[in-house]
Design a protein that fits this description.
CATH superfamily of the largest domain: Glycogen Phosphorylase B
CATH class of the largest domain: Alpha Beta
CATH topology of the largest domain: Rossmann fold
Strand content: 15-25%
CATH architecture of the largest domain: 3-Layer(aba) Sandwich
Number of domains: 2
Number of helices: 21
Length: about 575
């Protein structure tokens, strides 16, 4: 019997909710549900949304938990100098979400904070619904400071973040119970933000055993029920909170429990999750290796990320796949048969997607871009380690390349975290390159990058650029979205591209897998990038369109068929959920 056929008991008229059939609870600080619901900032949230979309397609009995973020992840504006300005995003919750009746209480800083939830249903290919509950503290019963706790994603100071994570982890488990989810076998923490859920599940086990403090039996029971996915390949990126702050914010019993997972007078949320999970994974093979070195005392597997193919394939390619690969939405692995699609058909579908995107760019920026010109795309969170400026670091070299091969177009997009001055400086530096590169290279920076623009952009450029500093790209998924649309990557060998790059077949590498032993890594990578553009990509695009189309087709067949969330979810089911 499939999950969609499971029999469940339902709400009574008095809203007494009893056992619901979902067996997996997926907790994430952010989930990208759709473009009009701004409850995500970037890759982590989009991945979470794609994960739940794949679960709905495959009818996995899962339920999602996140926060509601009433003011959204900010609306981005760039002034004339390229400096980023942030504004709240006003969005009507009632248009997308259904308010649920139950209320739960979490204690934060000694205050009783009421929490409600809003329900969103992710619909699978055949209509199977995956419920997602967005937690909300904006209730009149709460003090004003507590009503604001679920306003903004990654807003406020460290204490504010700690308070949000208490709501997510502890409040999330309590809300699931109040809603009737009593049969949860596995709690999946998507990054360490949700690690407090382990304390609540442990409290439940202790209550069942009648113990006032945890024994090894209860700890083992919690481990058997918890799964942890880490996305951060550097120690500084893991949430850590001063112990005195945690003591003031947590309930006393739960604070006493979490002291076992303290290091250097700080509660490390990653250590909390690592120690109370039976299965831990990184999000690419290389990231798994890096994580095992960081946390050598723990067993850490790897499940490489993917993207939801039906969501990120543009309309022209959806029509093409429907014609040549019927059933590809249900079976993403069938995309390997893209090798049988005529190259001319691949190229024509790409031109349709590219023309639509270039038209959008010209309307928004007046950049005067041309659909026939080689167009490079770079879009992701503006963080210094992603080195967005590498592509424009040598103005003279870029101009020399265009003098030999003809005009070039570069389209950037991406938000910097509101508190990330280095990321904002990157955007400004790229903006300053626009007049320096003109007229040989047309460059523009698109504002307010998000779900919808990402769909258009990953389908509408000719080559996707990614230049992270090794080994700081845990996985990356934007290049996977591009591959579904026949757009090959030119990328540093890090994250997923170590697995996806077959040189000259699915795309191209920048430099070697390991950074140079001496000299400036960025200088060496910039040179490698420019060399690949000048000697390989530009000549092929201009003079050997058949070979370029071959690479486009291979990107779909080899990368698109594997780097998707259907394959990823199947691995979670087999390795983590039902074992």
């Amino acid at each position: 019997m499939g999950p969609s056929q499971r029999v469940s008991r339902v709400l009574t008229e008095e809203c007494q909710i009893v056992d619901l059939p979902q067996r997996i609870a997926y907790f994430s600080m952010e989930i990208g549900l759709q473009s009009a619901v701004p409850t995500y900032s970037g890759g982590l949230g989009i991945l979470a949304g794609d994960t739940l979309r794949a679960a709905a397609d495959l009818e996995v009995p899962i339920v999602g938990v996140t926060l509601v973020y009433r003011k959204g992840y900010f609306y981005q504006r760039l002034d004339d100098s390229g400096m980023q300005k942030e504004e709240p995003v006003e969005w009507p919750l009632d248009d997308f979400l259904e308010e649920m009746a139950p209320r739960v209480v979490v204690h934060i800083g000694g205050r009783a904070v009421q929490i409600r939830s809003w329900r969103y249903a992710v619909q699978g290919i055949n209509g199977y619904p995956v419920p997602v509950y967005l937690l909300d503290s904006d209730l009149p019963e709460n003090e004003e400071q507590d009503r604001r706790l679920t306003d903004r994603l990654y807003g406020g100071d460290q204490r504010h973040r700690l308070q949000q994570e208490i709501i997510l982890g502890i409040g999330g488990v309590r809300m699931l119970r109040a809603l009737g989810y009593h049969n949860i076998d596995r709690f999946h923490m998507n990054e360490g933000h949700a690690s407090f859920l382990t304390l609540e599940v442990l409290a439940e086990e202790m209550a069942k055993a009648g113990n006032g403090s945890p024994t090894e039996r209860e700890i083992k029971a919690v481990r058997e029920r918890c799964v942890f996915t880490t996305h951060t390949p550097v120690p500084a990126g893991h949430d850590q909170f001063p112990l005195d702050m945690v003591m003031k914010e947590l309930e006393p019993d739960q604070f006493a429990t979490c002291q076992d997972y303290v290091s250097d007078s700080k509660l490390n949320m990653t250590y909390l999750a690592l120690n109370l999970s039976h299965y831990v994974n990184g999000v690419a093979k290389k990231h798994g290796e890096v994580s095992r070195l960081m946390f050598a005392e723990h067993s850490i597997d790897s499940i490489t990320n993917g993207v939801h193919a039906a969501t990120w394939t543009s309309p022209p390619f959806q029509e093409l796949f429907d014609q040549y690969i019927p059933g590809w939405r249900e079976d993403n692995f069938a995309l390997r048969y893209a090798l049988n699609i005529p190259r001319d058909a691949i190229w024509e579908a790409h031109r349709v997607a590219k023309r639509a995107f270039i038209d959008l760019v010209n309307r928004q920026t007046n950049a005067g871009m041309d659909v026939d010109v080689l167009t490079l795309g770079f879009a992701r969170r503006a963080a210094t380690y992603k080195r967005a400026d590498l592509l424009v670091s040598d103005i003279d070299r870029l101009k020399a390349i265009t003098a030999k091969h003809g005009p070039l177009q570069i389209i950037y997009a991406g938000k910097a975290h509101p508190h990330d001055g280095g990321g904002k400086d990157l955007i400004r530096q790229i903006h300053e390159a626009i007049p320096k590169l003109a007229p040989e290279v047309k460059l523009t920076y698109l504002r307010n990058y998000g779900f919808s623009l990402g769909q258009r952009m990953t389908a509408g450029v000719d080559v996707w650029i990614n230049t992270p500093q090794r080994p700081m790209e845990a996985s990356g998924t934007s290049g996977m979205k591009a591959a579904l649309n026949g757009v090959p990557s030119l990328s540093v060998l890090d994250g997923w591209w170590l697995e996806g790059c077959i040189e000259g077949v699915t795309g191209w590498s920048i430099g070697k897998e390991e950074p140079p032993e001496s000299g400036d890594e960025s200088v060496a990578d910039a040179k490698a990038l420019y060399d690949k553009l000048q000697k390989t990509i530009f000549p092929m695009f201009k003079k050997d369109r058949k070979q370029f189309a071959n690479i486009m087709r291979s990107a779909i067949a080899l990368n698109g068929s594997f780097f998707n969330t259907h394959r990823m979810m199947q691995q979670y089911v087999l390795n983590a959920y039902f074992v």
